[in-house]
Amino acid sequence: MTPPAPDTAPILIVDDMEENLVALEAVLSSLTSKVVRARSGEEALKAMLREEFAVVLIDVLMPGMNGFETAANLKGLDQTKDVPIILLTGASVDPNYAYRGYTVGAADFLIKPFDPWLLRTKVNVFLDLYRKNHQLASQADQLKRLLTGPTPAESPATPAEPHGPAHAPHAPEDAPTPAPPVGDEALSDIASRLAQIELLLRDARDAESAGLADRIAALEQSVERLMAGREV
């Protein structure tokens, strides 16, 4: 699966009718620079295995693999199971379609003809979540590099032996290399990044994110105490 550019939140639209794809693209193109079309459930599966999408909109009534089957297949694959799905269908449909859509894992269900403003609003929620998740992952990766990455450090000179040529002792090949101390500037940067990650998690507003935010806050306090101890 090809990861998107950091500032891109791609959308996949799936419909067997060209005019419907054109209409959807016209409504959604103002939200992102990349809207990808698929004319069938099979094409949608192939597209999502090639590329990462922020959200996918699927028409329910398609020949071959219909929208429910496409959604179920996407939710059954590890690579695509977390991608939000919005199902779309016409007005004269079975009233149980919405329930069926949610049972296969759809995040939302819209009936045509839909209000363009409403559609953009719903899709934009998933685009914002996608961007925040990528921002959070990037911040976490940068924090990990700060905590574990090597920093230049001078090693003390080894004194020469009293009698004989001066030479440095050889450390065992399997001896672990001690981690260099983290400087005050690096600690300050770490504390700042922890605060940003905590804010992103708080914005997610779910139980798992709240728990992670509490753990990040505790780590942030530990870093601040360490910095305060150095100043004493």
Automatic annotation (TrEMBL):
<keyword id="KW-0597">Phosphoprotein</keyword>
<feature type="compositionally biased region" description="Low complexity">
    <location>
        <begin position="150"/>
        <end position="169"/>
    </location>
</feature>
<dbReference type="InterPro" id="IPR001789">
    <property type="entry name" value="Sig_transdc_resp-reg_receiver"/>
</dbReference>
<feature type="domain" description="Response regulatory">
    <location>
        <begin position="10"/>
        <end position="127"/>
    </location>
</feature>
<dbReference type="InterPro" id="IPR050595">
    <property type="entry name" value="Bact_response_regulator"/>
</dbReference>
<dbReference type="InterPro" id="IPR011006">
    <property type="entry name" value="CheY-like_superfamily"/>
</dbReference>
<feature type="region of interest" description="Disordered">
    <location>
        <begin position="148"/>
        <end position="185"/>
    </location>
</feature>
<protein>
    <submittedName>
        <fullName>Response regulator</fullName>
    </submittedName>
</protein>
<feature type="modified residue" description="4-aspartylphosphate">
    <location>
        <position position="59"/>
    </location>
</feature>
<dbReference type="Pfam" id="PF00072">
    <property type="entry name" value="Response_reg"/>
</dbReference>
